[in-house]
Amino acid sequence: MALTEAERKRGVVAFSSGNHAQAVAIAADHLKIAATIVMPLDTPNQNSSHSIVRAEDHFVRPPEGGSRGSSAAGGRRNQRGCIASVRSSLGCSRSRNSCLELLTEQPGLDALFVPAGGGGLLAGSAVAAKAHNPQIRVFGVEPELPAIGPIAQSGQRVAIPPPLTIADGLRTPSPGEVTFPIVSELVEEVLLVSEDEIKAAVRFLLSRLKLLTEPSGAVPAAALLHKKIPTAYARLASYCRGAMWI
User: Fold this and answer.
1) What is the CATH number of the domain that holds 51?
2) 156: which residues sit within 8 A by CB, 6+ positions away?
3) Using CB atoms within 10 A as the burial measure, which of 40, 51, 129, 134 is most buried?
4) Exposed, middle or buried: residue 123 (CB in 10 Å: 0-12, 13-18, 19+)?
5) Residue pLDDT, tens place only, 171-184
6) Cβ-contact 151, 198 below 8 angstroms
7) pLDDT above 90 covers what percent of the chain?
8) In terms of residue numbers, what domain contains 130?
């Protein structure tokens, strides 16, 4: 919606393993603009075969490597003039608005726990949380397999091999160029959880709260359930795309 008419004529490209791909597909179809969805070869089949992505967009897979790090197709598409739809200030704004809804509904939170990944959701949430309450503490959470968390706290933005984790939405090989400085400044710490802890959190959310949550969205809950949080809080929230736990 924020694109100019000239930019809409150029089309958009999105690199995603599922959620972002479907959102861009719907938005592009609504605006009647061209969109290319680039997915890794190892994307879960239920995401890559989703009718929304296949029916309303030109669907492309990276030609080599097969993992989330294989973004060559997206790069070539960008060279033809498309607008990249991720890792932008607009992406941070979208996440900021989602977090503001949470903070409005649940005032007085002491801490917020958010999936890390490329940093879009985490950066936007941190901006919103700190603006709403400068005293709130913001933490990122991600898989302990080769993780971006320690990199974010080293003060350097570097790339790593795509982590082999069940949390496929967090397999980003490098923090976003826009999001990295925000995360470094506003996020207190990035906590790490194991694969078994992520699976246990998914089971807990389904069996106890009746919430069917993808592993990427369950990582903050995993940190809470397995006592990875650094101190006790009176009121805290585990937050991800489309769901929250108070």
Assistant:
1) 3.40.50.1100
2) none
3) 129
4) buried
5) 777 787 888 888 98
6) no
7) 23
8) 90-245
